Give the backbone structure.
Amino acid sequence: MEPEEETYAPELCAHCEGAGCCYCDKKGEVLVRQPSKKCHHCDGDGCIYCGFTGWEGLEGRYPPCTW
Ligand SMILES: [Zn+2]
Ligand SMILES: [Zn+2]
């Protein structure tokens, strides 16, 4: 039996819509805890609470934008 673990899956970064930006570490997607939920602060548009990715339950912290 496997222990119940939080699972994460890549979701499209709302800020760059896959193009890659500093908020998603230029990957175009971010790891989000499953089942994935859009950020309830911005409804997926991106805000400071979700690191501008549009998702809740990000895995770890993505580095702040330094461009
Ligand atoms: Zn992005
Ligand atoms: Zn948000």
The chain has no helices and three strands. The two ends are 45 Å apart (CA to CA). The chain has a mean pLDDT of 88. The beta strands are 8-12, 29-38, 55-58.
